[in-house]
Specification:
single chain; about 300 residues; alpha+beta; Beta-lactamase; 2 domains; six-stranded antiparallel beta sheet; three-stranded antiparallel beta sheet; globular; Beta-lactam-related; hydrolase activity
Length: about 300
Amino acid sequence: MINMTRFETQIRERGLNVFNVRVLQNGTLVGKSDLAEDIRRLQHSVSKSFTCMAVGLAIEEGKLTPDTTLREVFPDYAFTQEALPSMQPGELTLFDLLRMSTGHDSPPFWAEERLALKDVNWIQHYLSLPLDRPPGEQFTYSSGDTIMISAMIQASVGQTVRDYLVPRLFAPLGIENVDWETTPHGITLGCAGLQINTEELSRFGQLLLQKGMWQGQQLIPAAWIEFVTQKQIENDGDGDWGQGYGCQFWLCTHDAYRADGAHGQFCVVAPDAQVVIAINSMEDNMQAILDTVWEEIWPLL
C-alpha cells in the first residue's frame, strides 16, 4: 500500500473538503484515504459516464447508432423551425449529444432550470429550442444533452437507463439497490442524480480500465469504451479541463481520462499506468484536488 499521509496533509493544508479516495493499480487496492465515512453520495456529472455505457449497449443491441437523430426517435416533437436544415434541432445526432457539440450557446436544463420546468414536457422543450450555430463545430458543456441521450435510450430499449443498466452493469459490479433520480416524466436523469460510494465508483473505473471486461464477462463492448474515452472534440479550459472531451468523459493530463462531477467526484483512469483513482468530495476547487493527486499520489505509483 502506498502512504497517503502526504496527500491527506496537503488536502487539509489547502482546505479541500475531500471525503474518500481509492487508488487501484493492476486491479489491486494500493491506496486508501477515508477522511469521512464512505457512504453513498450524489455523483452529479459522474452519472453522465454511466449513461454513456447504456448507449454502448443499446448500439450493440442494434437499438441505436451514433447517427440516430432526435427526429427519428421523437418524430412527434421534432417540428421544422424557420432555419436551415443543418440548424434543425431534430437533426441532432446521438453523436452530437454525446460529445456535447449540439450548437447551443446557453445549454438547456441546468439544475435551476430543471426545477422551473418541472411541469413541462422536457423532450418537447429541448426540441423547440433554436440552435445558435451548426452542430459539431464547438464543445459546450450541456447536461441537457445527456438528458436527451437518456430519453433516446429509454425510447429505444423500452426501459429507463437505470433499469436497463441494473442487470447489465450494476448487478455484475455488485452495486445493489441503485438510486438514480428521474425527471418528472419518468426518464432517468442521466446527467446527474446517481448515488454510489467511492469503493463502488472505483469498481466502475476498473471496469473501464479493463475495457468492459469483468470477472470473465464482457459487460460493455471494448471498442465502445476505447471510442468514448478518446478525444472527440477540442475544448477551452485550463489544466485538466483543457485537454479535450470524449463522449461523456473528460481527458486529463498524465495520459488519463476521467468521469467527473460537480464538487469533486472523480473517477480517473490511466490505462498506461494501469491506475484507477476514485474520489468523493464536496469541494468547488476541483482542479486543486487533481493537482494534489498528481503531486502526492501519482509519483508513488
